[in-house]
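Message: A physicist's question: would you kindly supply an amino acid chain plus fold tokens?
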Amino acid sequence: MNDRTDHETRDLPAEKAPGDTPPLVTHHADTRRFEIHVGDGEPAFLSYTGEGDRVVFEHTYVPDHLRGKGMGGILVRAALEAARQRQWKIIPRCTYVAAFIKRNPQFADLVVSADPI
């Protein structure tokens, strides 16, 4: 993993949900999470860990108040785009991330292991 991102927190562009302004995806490198905050409720997030020179996308979570709005896809796409910018090689242990990559093969080159655990 690239050390320069260990303390970085920044907003990343996300794809626009139909009819809405796009939600901001924020990368919290200190807690190793990508998050979407909407309103006062808990955030949607994708958590990751480091495993040597690889980044393991562990878990994607979307709370009830954000489900059915495409937030999971927006979150994963932003995380994968950030991984590409940082030249991370990823292991998609999260089954949602693995399925997203299957549906969006332009991200397949980031994967070093396609088998979710």
